Amino acid sequence: MTTSAIETVMHRGQPLRLDRLLGPGTRTVTVATSRDPNAKVTVLLFRAGATAPTLVVKIPTTIGAAIAVDAEAATLMRLPSRLDPALLESVPRVVDRLPTSCGDALVTTAVPGAPMTIGYHRWLHVSRRVAVARDFD
Question: In what order do the strands lie in the sheet with 104-109?
Fold first, then answer.
């Protein structure tokens, strides 16, 4: 794994080594950063030779972001008992929690698709009821 901004996320003075999750040849892609003061960094992890991600890691950059990551983890862990099994294939599964200097990073399975927020950034998307309804379909 090459040096990246993600490796600068530290725990007890050591870089968070995401390559250990999938083994040698792991590739990472940072897909989301934010200017939010409580931002999370989202990283896709690819097994060696894979074209689709296997895991997703959300890394908090502040204590506030860590609270949001913890809430997401808790919600994802409750869903299997509340959703129809057919729907669970479309929901990430919690795989691990990794300590960082700001709080635990969340490791989940990757699911196919694009984040809903991508559509929401299109011009006037949320002002069109049909477009928003299609998102939830």
Answer: 27-32, 40-46, 55-60, 104-109, 94-99
pLDDT tens, 33-56?
667 888 888 889 999 999 999 999
Distance, CA of 20 to CA of 1 (rounded, Å): 10
94 vs 14, 66, 78, 109, 110, CA distance in Å? 23, 15, 10, 7, 10
What is d(CA 116, CA 84) in angstroms, rounded to the nearest whole number? 21
The per-residue pLDDT for range 88-106, each reduced to its tens digit, is 888 999 999 988 888 899 9
Q: Phi first, then psi: what are they for 36, rounded to 5°? A: -55, 135
Mean pLDDT, range 65-85, rounded to an integer: 93
Q: Is 99 helix (H, G, I), strand (E, B) or coil?
A: strand
Is residue 1 scored above 50 in pLDDT? Answer: no
Q: Name the CA dihedral angle for 32, 35, 37, 38, rounded to a multiple of 10 degrees.
A: -10
Question: Length of the chain in residues, anyone?
Answer: 137
Between CA 129 and CA 112 the distance in angstroms is: 25
Token representation of residue 32: 């989301």
| Cα separation, 99 vs 102, whole angstroms | 8
